[in-house]
Amino acid sequence: MTTMTTPAADAATPPQSAPRFGGARSAALCLVGAASTGAGLLLPAALGRTLDLLLAHSPATRWVLCCAGLVLLTVLLDAGETVLGGTVDARTTAWLRRRLTGHVLAVGPRAAARFGPGDLVARFVGNASQAGTAPAARALLFAAFAGPVGGVVALGLIDPWLAAVFLAGAPVLTLLLRGLARDTTRCVADYQRVQGRIASALTEAVAGHRTIEAAGRARREAARILRPLPDLSRAGCRMWRVQGRAAAQASTVAPLLQLGIVAVAGLLLARHRLSVGEVLAASRYAVLATGIGVLVGQFATLARARAAAGRLDEVLSEPATAYGDRRLLPGPGRLELRGVTARRGGRTVLDGVDLVVPGGTTLALVGRSGTGKSLLAALAGRLADPDAGEILLDGVPLRDLSHAELRRAVGHAFERPALLGTTVEDAIALGPRPLSPAAVREATRLACADDFVRRLPNGYATRCADAPRSGGESQRLGLARAFAHGGRLLILDDALSSLDTVTEAQITDALLAHGTHGTRLLVAHRAATAARADAVAWLDGGRVRAVGTHARLWRLAGYRAVFGDGGAA
């Protein structure tokens, strides 16, 4: 099979490649940060020289102006660093979210099944924002190191003994930074995982808020959602303890080093090896050389970004659906399943299913709950892939079809359709190709939805958010969308379940009469719906137990039991 690179394939690039995005801005940020550090390193020398000239009663105007210029330059560079840093963070975060969105949509339902909607939202919102700070933090890391290194070099230029005092304590500072980076990454990862658990529980509760309210379990659900809070608190406390301990250790070591440097500088001043101005410069360089606080902040930011990037990598490691480049030849829409096996949650839902749906016919899928009807419908339209076997449409394996060809050929309607788009007309027209207003209205009439759409405040131009509708009306709009885009195979996954019997009969008549040359696969829960199909496939125990007309299968007690005592032929 020949495969094509899809847009989603690019989304599999790990977040660590984010620093390459906006490289020009990152480079500019690095240069601005380095320039700001350079100006900060020049200022103590200029101040020291100015002080020596003033004490000697020599002209110092030029040096005073030089100091003022360096201060002004530092302020301007710091402002530029802030603006550039914020810009790089925002653009990188937006880039990561676009990549994640494309990849999750390309992966399809597997992403939500593995991670859960709430956890995915937490990764999109919080983790992408934290991972997006990595490029700016890395760009400024050079400047953060340049300050202490430059301070040590400057101390050495003033007098080697000053640099020696600092270097004696440098290993301690190095160990502090190393331990901080290691411990912070682990603590932040734990904190982010607990956040994801809370987000998943909250999303589930929001989706089922009516059930929760009807059961009078709001308080219990709130307690369930917030149950991981102690774990979150412990992870947060560990994170802040790590950073607090590192800051406390640094605030102990750094002043001792500064005091040692100033004390040695004082001794050298007493021996007339240093001037007063050089002692002033040495005291300032001692602060720069022991500037552990800046490094601690940069390492903490990078540690949080690294932990967040790891959570994004988990999403991006889920393989996206690959498509071929074949096209369909003209055909009636014959659907064939050969030895299809599908597993979900460690359970074999479909086991070696063989099924043929002749082109231009309607096949109803019937079976008890959990027998795999919806999964088979998803496999038939390649909204999911089987673990074994293959599915063919007019003799071409679905895996070999290009994405555009597949979506033009297969239409779907669902039990709970998602109405995406600004207006009702946009929601119905959503599909692989643009539709004219006339085509939208014709499809809406076939779905028996035209009357209630016209009664909306602005008819077809009503915003979806402002269009009150029942479950049955939402299903009719989903059916209208499926009818509008047609295709040689139309799959209805329980898309008639919320309709009253009269409307269901009208839509079923339209379904069977509309698109005579198309094939229809219908998940049916009502005997009346199955009776209208050309044939019925009875699923039981993960296999196709029988295929035939509803009237013939009705003679079997097991088949009648699928519909319960109320089923009628």
Outline of the structure:
With 569 residues, the chain is of the alpha/beta class. The chain has helices spanning 7-10, 23-55, 61-107, 109-115, 117-131, 134-158, 160-207, 209-215, 218-225, 229-270, 276-289, 292-316, 373-380, 403-409, 424-429, 437-446, 450-454, 471-485, 501-513, 527-532, 550-553, 557-562, and strands spanning 335-344, 347-357, 362-366, 388-393, 396-397, 410-414, 489-493, 519-523, 535-540, 543-548. The strands form 2 sheets. The chain has a 6-stranded mixed beta sheet with strand order 6-7-8-3-9-10, with helices on both faces. Strands 2-1-4-5 form a 4-stranded antiparallel beta sheet, with helices on one face.
Report what the structure shows.
This protein has 569 residues and is of the alpha/beta class. It has helices at residues 7-10, 23-55, 61-107, 109-115, 117-131, 134-158, 160-207, 209-215, 218-225, 229-270, 276-289, 292-316, 373-380, 403-409, 424-429, 437-446, 450-454, 471-485, 501-513, 527-532, 550-553, 557-562; strands at 335-344, 347-357, 362-366, 388-393, 396-397, 410-414, 489-493, 519-523, 535-540, 543-548. It is elongated, with a radius of gyration of 34 Å. The protein starts with 6 loop residues before the first helix and ends in a 7-residue tail after the last helix.
Layout: helices, strands, pairs:
Blueprint: H1 7-10, H2 23-55, H3 61-107, H4 109-115, H5 117-131, H6 134-158, H7 160-207, H8 209-215, H9 218-225, H10 229-270, H11 276-289, H12 292-316, E1 335-344, E2 347-357, E3 362-366, H13 373-380, E4 388-393, E5 396-397, H14 403-409, E6 410-414, H15 424-429, H16 437-446, H17 450-454, H18 471-485, E7 489-493, H19 501-513, E8 519-523, H20 527-532, E9 535-540, E10 543-548, H21 550-553, H22 557-562
